[in-house]
Specification:
This protein has a single domain (19-194, 207-414), classed as MFS general substrate transporter like domains (Growth Hormone, Chain: A). It is 80% helix and 0% strand. The protein contains 18 helices and no strands.
Length: 423
Amino acid sequence: MNFANAFRVFKSRDYRLFFTGQLISRIGMWMQRTAVIWVIYTMTNSVLMVGVATFAEQFPSFLLSPAGGITADRYNRYKILMATQIISALQAVLLTVSYVYGYHSVTILLLLSLMLGIANAYDIPARQAMVNDLVKSNEDLPAAIAMNSSLNNLTRLAGPALAGIVIANYGAAICFGTNAISFIAVIICLNMIHFPAYKAPLKRKKPWTDFKEGFDYMKKQPEISKTLLLCSLVSFFVITYNTLQPYFAKSVFHGDAATYGYMTAATGLGAFTSTLFIASQKKVSNLKTILFFNLLLLGAGLIAMSFVKIFPVYIIFCFICGFGTMSIMPICNTIIQTVSVVEMRGRVIGFFAMATLGTLPLGSLIIGWISKYISAQHCQLAQGILCLIIVMFFYKFLKGEKKPDSCEGDLEIQHKKDIILNP
């Protein structure tokens, strides 16, 4: 493992600014997200309502991410990002003001979470595709994508831990206000970055045509379609175990918001460690093998964690499951961005967001509903077993013949041939 490969990408001034702005903003976002979930759970004492909150924030990605991907391919990504950051900041301000003035309503929290989810559906494809614009060397691209994913995992470590302490001592409104202020940093950094000159498409097609072209392209590339299918199954059936965490914090370990924050932070520490490990890999062809073993680790960790009743031991398993869980996003994202052609990259990332962030809220809603009829421990046990079944189903894909690292060039040539033959 060579960490020099992971950090070499920070030689780029523009990438450093991009990473720094997002780092500050995402810490605020995780503080807000943790506070919203904890407030809703304490108000309703319902895991189902936690699932509804996750659904409200993330389901728009399922519906709108393909449109977000088309937008990222057709329009200036810098302007798209500025618009989504401003809308997200406005959402945080509204959330802070409503809570300060005593409007502690689940309905308001859900509606504002929905507003944030709509912004994220357009933000994620543009932000992920922009990494390719900021990194000059294709050799650094896998590390840049993984480090971009590690950013979310690092903030998942810091944000919930800070939120737990802040909520316990000062209340949720401070978390909401901190998130609103954090957007100042990302907006400043975006304005300091030297983005490549925007080149508008010579001819813009109808949105439906763009969507169909992207969907057909995805289907014709087995590396992309199988990766997206794997992502969607794991996101729907397995990663949703986090929906159960407030129940474990309050009902199993008899803790408070700080307890929940420590559990989420331990998961984030495992996730951050995982993405650093992934970013240190020099060859993309190694990633599927790593994904295979990390999925096995996640499944076994969830099975073991469902039986744990001692909090320090549970925290250790949170770290282990976080390590396994958060390797999925950066590895799959790296695979699909590495093999997709430039013209299709925004749309492919849109489908990726749909397969991951889109299916996650559906799964959260269902696991919250199931937990009403069987215990949270049994739900977590079932998710661990399902994870092992999924990884066995994809065994040939994950452990089969490795693709060459530089497959993008061949796809670029084939794509240009398709354009010539089918203008």
